[in-house]
Specification:
Elements (H helix, E strand, L loop, with lengths): L2 E5 L3 H13 L3 E5 L2 H10 L4 E5 L7 H8 L7 E6 L4 H9 L4 E4 L4 H35 L7 H13 L6 E4 L6 H10 L8 E5 L5 H9 E2 L11 E2 L1 H4 L4 E5 L6 H13 L1 E2 L8 E2 L3 E6 L3 H6 L5 H7 L2 E4 L10 H15 L6 E2 L1 H9 L5 H15 L6 E2 L6 H4 L3 H4 L12 H19 L4 H7 L4 H10 L3
Parallel strand pairs: 1-2, 1-3, 3-4, 4-5, 6-13, 6-14, 7-10, 10-13, 15-16
Antiparallel strand pairs: 8-9, 11-12
Helix pairs in contact: 2-3, 13-15, 18-19, 19-20
Length: about 450
């Protein structure tokens, strides 16, 4: 039932309009002053506000102007017995839905205007719902690509989703490990339950423990109330532990206990709480090598890697770059409500040739930036819309002349050497400032830090 607020200092008119619209099946409230109207709008949600313009305390124009700063103010229909061009222009400039002159046919005219307004509101809400649904579908189908590596991952997702087995997703930063985890959750029987994600590398150990397990008031300094932990919040759903390789050995013991006993104990608590969660973990590190070096618990490694899934870097699936770029283009055009357009041939060539050291995340950020800076009049996404680091890249700058030895090359080792040289050169250009070096390479600091650690720079 649509809700209407009628604002007029003439109480007899309020009563007449209230009776008329209640007969139309609408919920109606009335107030006799502008201040009372603002108090109502601030505390309740109305679909429509029908307000007189001339009132003793605040004018209808002033009510409309102040209501615009509130949350969900509703659509305004302004009515007046003394119409002027100035007030009409003010009303429309402030976003009023209609400006109606009071006559002896006011009720009939308002019936028509209100019916149209409610139809427009319903249409807008439906469009908004469809847009949200489209964005939700984009989020569920972000694993894009035709390469064998991606098809193998999708097949594995379909295979393991119905089980409750623990999954370990490995791969470089920016390859889309969390997307794979979400895809497993969406395809599982737990899809209607929470998918809860936490980056283990973003918290110091003590804070990570309180975030995961929760706590009771007084458990530690600053614990001024009870807080449910992330593990308990994920009950009956999926818990995604990103960067699990960053957890301490003592935290691994506690998480191992959760996996084995299916119980948690909040900090400061004395009773265990049973939990039913499916664990999916991810890392950009070699946990097996870390376990051999006793930097990661071996028993915990085997417990979390029941089903391993490796997400290859974008350089190993170049055939997916165009499909991903077009996918992100559609996504951001929709999100930003911009008209449909394609890449220019030159922009697409640059996108395909660029090495994308930051993987899918860097590609997504580049396309988002391109869509954001493009203008309504632009027919295509051109090279000029791409980030400077992308449009300034030239394959010839990597190596002027390729001499292919008769015995062949180790391609992966060769590419890694090029990556390392680029990182070193960027550091030199940035005078050792890593954040600036990351900017010069067009990647996030997190990706730069990962590669620097990988190549022991």
């Amino acid at each position: 039932m649509a809700r209407i607020l009628i604002v007029d200092d003439e109480k007899s008119l309020c009563q007449m309009l209230e009776i008329a619209f209640r007969k139309e099946g609408l919920s109606v409230e009335t107030v006799s002053s502008g201040k009372a109207a603002l108090a109502k709008i601030e505390s309740q949600v109305y679909d429509l506000i029908i307000s007189d313009i001339r009132m003793p305390d605040l004018t209808g124009i002033e009510v409309l102007e102040r209501a615009k700063g509130m949350q969900n103010p509703g659509a305004f229909i302004l009515i007046t017995a003394v119409p002027t061009v100035t007030t009409a222009i003010q009303a429309l400039n402030l976003g009023a839905y209609r400006y109606v002159i009071k006559t002896d046919k006011l009720v009939d005219e308002l019936r028509v205007v209100v019916a149209r307004a409610l139809e427009d509101l319903a249409l807008r809400e439906e469009n908004s719902r469809l847009r949200r649904e489209m964005l939700r579908l984009f989020a569920q189908n972000n694993i894009v690509g035709h390469s064998r590596g991606i098809q193998d991952i999708l097949e594995m997702v379909r295979t393991v989703a119905p089980t409750n087995s623990t999954v370990l997703i490995t791969g470089e930063s920016g390859t889309g490990k969390e997307l794979v985890a979400r895809a497993i959750h969406e395809a599982s029987q737990r899809r209607e339950k929470p998918f809860v994600s936490i980056n283990c590398g973003a918290f110091p150990e003590t804070l990570l423990e309180s975030e995961l397990f929760g706590y009771f008031k007084g458990a530690f300094t600053g614990a001024e109330g009870n807080k449910k932990g992330i593990i308990e919040s994920a009950n009956e759903g999926t818990l995604f532990l990103d960067e699990i390789g960053e957890t301490s050995l003592s935290m691994q013991v506690k998480l191992l206990r959760v996996l084995q006993e299916r119980k948690i104990r909040p900090l400061g608590g004395t009773v265990d709480i049973p939990v039913d969660v499916r664990l999916i973990a991810s890392t950009n590190r070699d946990l097996k090598a870390m376990a051999a070096e006793e930097k990661f618990r071996e028993d915990f490694y085997y417990r979390v890697s029941v089903i391993p899934i490796h997400v290859p870097p974008l350089r190993d699936r170049r055939e997916d770059v165009e499909a991903l770029a077009r996918h992100f283009l559609k996504k951001f055009l929709l999100e930003m409500s911009k008209p449909e357009r394609d890449f220019s041939p030159e922009a697409l060539r640059v996108i395909q040739e660029y090495p994308w050291p930051g993987n899918v995340r860097e590609l997504e950020n580049a396309i988002e930036r391109a869509v954001a800076v493009s203008k309504e009049a632009d027919a295509v996404i051109s090279v000029e819309h791409l980030p400077e680091s992308v449009r300034g890249f030239s394959p010839a700058s990597v190596q002027k002349e390729i001499r292919f030895p008769s015995e062949g090359v180790n391609f992966e080792t060769h590419i890694q050497q090029i990556e390392k040289e680029y990182l070193l050169e960027a550091l030199r250009a940035a005078e050792g400032v890593r954040t600036r070096a990351a900017e010069l390479l067009g990647m996030s600091y997190r990706s730069f830090r990962h590669l620097a650690k990988k190549y022991e720079i």
